[in-house]
Structure formats: structure tokens, C-alpha cells
Amino acid sequence: MIWTILKLGWKNVWRNPTRSSVVIIAVVLGTWAGIFSAGFFNGFMQDYLDNQIELTTGHIQIMHPEFDDQFDPKFTIPGADKILNELRSDGRVTELIGMSQVTGLAQSTRNSFGVTINGLSATDSLGFISRYLTEGALPDDGMRNPILIGTELAKRLSLGLRSRMVLSFQDISGEITGGAFRVAGIFDSFNDRYDENTVFVLRKDLNRLLGEEDVFHLIRIQTSNLSLSDRMSTDLANTYDQVELKSWKDLSPDLRYLFDMTDLTLYIVMMIIIIGLVFSIINTMLMAVLERTRELGMLRAIGMNKTRTFNMVMWETFFLTMVGSPIGLLLSWLTINYFAGAGIDLSAFAQGLNQYGMATLVYPSLSAPYYFNLMLMIAGAAILSALYPAWRTLQLRPVEAIRKFN
Fold first, then answer.
1. CB atoms within 10 A of CB 165
2. Which residues, including other chains, have CB under 8 Å from residue 249's CB and lie 6 or more apart?
3. What is the pLDDT of residues 307-359, one digit of tens each?
4. Element (H, E) at 352
């Protein structure tokens, strides 16, 4: 009998091919739109997190326990050389940079602005900033007091390549010091705020002005995988108890909140689209039930009980949804995979996106568990949308249903 109900439900789906086709197309488009939107949003957020973490904090930072609170240059990392040497042999580390860092005032003949001054070694791997270099070159030992600045700071201070500027800041003894630097390069990242308040000089030049030649304020670590940062941070904290270790989640709570909310936001987007699908399917099935009131009354009159009538409508709705969902799933998978390689160019909105530190090229991505979970949500939505039309069939009285259309 179950097989008979299944066959009857499948035949009923195609009694009105136009209406069924419209619903199936709606399910295909809804599934595709929902999953692709989730993939786009996931890629957008993942790119944003990766770019922001790589540019601003790195995965892990090591510092003096009091440096992050007071940002006083006298709080340098004890035993920094030993820590750097040991970390260079750690296979989990992909990029390691020891830097001195102070906050100060950048001045030109036209203007002045507060900046964070990073002192780096010319031999360090500076992939996190070199990729954004648009003019000139990175600071090099062959130059005299070179400085790398962002485009926004260059505009604010009216500076160009080889322009002269002055940095003023507090040295390790607490005295105000400063020095003249010449612009060696200009970078343009996706984050206008970062471009405006961050400059890079050679560590030896900055340390000379600070008053001590061989000091480090920060050790920045980039790991092979973002998920390693928490575990590695804990391991290093157990090894180096005289310094403070912070993962990117501690250094940037707003990015951590964004990371934690990504999954929830994806499912909320998908839920909104599925709710639209549910109402569309309910509307179609209600019309189908109302059109077949006499037929359903007849089936009840000749002996089909309520359970079988209920199951028949449920199977019709399930078939309608499940015919369209796999096609929509396949389309979304193909689309996401294509744009995961080609990217989606949003450079038309570059000015607005850069103000919020967002990249203009988005690579959609969605892992396999998301596809599985979304299919479960769609199947659940199909069952949910079938309940009300099926319940309406149970309210029919056979005699009244037959007379109504005679």
C-alpha cells in the first residue's frame, strides 16, 4: 500500500505540469540562491578575516606583559634573540618577524598626524606588507633612514617618493626624541585606516633613536593554518613564562566576534530564503488540494483512510521539493567552485569597501558539511510546508466534498 501511495503522489505531481514545473524551478533557484549566497558571504568573511589578521596582528604576538597595556617603549621582550632563534626551527611557523614599535607623530612641512611606527629588519620576510607596495621599494640597509608609508598618510601629509618627513616619539628613557626620514616606498592596502596610521622603518634606525640598539617590542608569528594559532599560543605560553603571548583572538576581539558569528549568520541567510520557499510550496499545494476537493472526497468515500490521504499529500510535496533541490545544489556547487578560482570583482565599490578594511576581490567558498546541513534544512522545510495542506485534506467531509462540485 505504501508503494501505491508513493506512485499516486508522484502521478499527482505531474497532473498539472506547468504549475509543478514552476514550483520546481522556484525550488532550484531558491536552493541555488541560498547556497551561493552562503558561499559568497562565507568567502567574503573568510577573506576579510585572513586579510585583516595577516595585515594587522598576525596569528600570534609575543610581547612584554606590560607593553600592550601602556605601550611604553621601555617594556621590551626579555631574551628576544633566544626566542626568535628557537621559533625559527618550529615547523608550524611560516613567517617570523621581530620588531620594535612605538607610537609617535609624523610631520611634513604641510601637516602632522599620529602614527604607529614599526621597526623591521631588511632581512625579514615582509610578505604581509610587500604585496601592497605600489611605489618605490621596501626600506633597505643601503638607504639612509628610509621609511615606508601608506597612500592615505601620503595624501594627508602631501608626501611623495623621496619626500622628507620627521618622526617624533618617546624613547626608552622617557624623553621625547625624533629623526628625519625619507620616503622610500608607498603601499596601498585594502584598509584606508591602516594606510593612514602605520609606517615602517628599519629597526636599527628606530632603535638608535630609542636609545638601545638591540631591543624588540613584538615578535609576530604567522602559522601555516589559522586554526593552529590557539594551540600554538598555549604551547608557547607554557614554554616562555616571562613574556605574554596573545593570539589574534586576544589582539582583535572584534575579529574574534566576527569569526564566531560567521556560521550563525550563514544559517540565518539560508533560513530567510528557505522561509520564502516554504510559503511558495504551501501556496501551491493548497491550490492543488482545493482543486481536487471532489477527488479527495471521493477517495475518502470509497475507503481511503485519513492517514493514507495525509501521506499522499505529504509525498506530493516532498517530491516537488526533492526534484528541484539536487539540481539547485549541483548548480550552486558548480557556481561556487568556478568563482572560488576566478573571484568576484567588487572594485566598483572599492572606495566604500576600503573604508571598512574589506578587499574588492571575493572568492566564494563553502565546505562539504555546509552542503549537507543545508540539504537537511531544505528537506525539513519540505516536510514543514507539506503539513498544512495535508492537514486541510483531513478536514474534508467526503459527502460535502463530493456535493460541493456536483
1. 21
2. 229, 230, 255, 256, 259
3. 887 888 788 777 877 788 888 889 989 999 999 888 888 877 777 776 666 77
4. helix 350-355
CA 51 – CA 69 distance, rounded (Å):
25
Chain position carrying cell 540562491: 33
Which of these, 285, 353, 339, lies nearest to 9 by C-alpha position? 285
Sole residue written with cell 521539493: 321
- At residue 107, the pLDDT reads 93
pTM: 0.71
β-strand pairing of 198-202 with 112-120? parallel
Contact 209, 73 (CB under 8 A): no
User: Which DSSP string corresponds to 173-214?
Assistant: TS-EEEEEEEEEEEE--S-HHHHHHEEEEEHHHHHHHHT-SS
Q: What is the rounded CA–CA span in Å between residue 373 and residue 10?
A: 26
- The burial class, CB within 10 Å (0-12 / 13-18 / 19+), for 43 is buried
The pLDDT confidence band at residue 1, using thresholds 50, 70 and 90, is low
H/E element, 106 = strand 93-107
The separation between the first and the last C-alpha atoms of the chain, rounded to the nearest angstrom, is 30
What gap in Å lies between CA 267 and CA 284, rounded to an integer?
A: 25
pLDDT band with cut points at 50, 70 and 90 for residue 406:
very low
Q: Show the cell assigned to 287.
A: 491550490
Q: Please, what sign has the CA dihedral across residues 129, 130, 131, 133?
A: positive
pLDDT tens column, 55-105: 888 899 999 988 877 788 899 999 888 898 898 888 888 888 899 999 999
Cell numbers that stand for 379 in this block: 528537506
Q: How far is CA 248 from CA 11, 57, 229, 230, 338, in A?
A: 58, 6, 8, 9, 31
Q: In this predicted structure, what is the pLDDT of residue 155?
A: 93
Q: Rounded distance, CA 27 to CA 331, Å?
A: 12
86-113 b/e with 16+ CB inside 10 Å = b? ebeeeebbebbbbbbbbebebbbeeeee
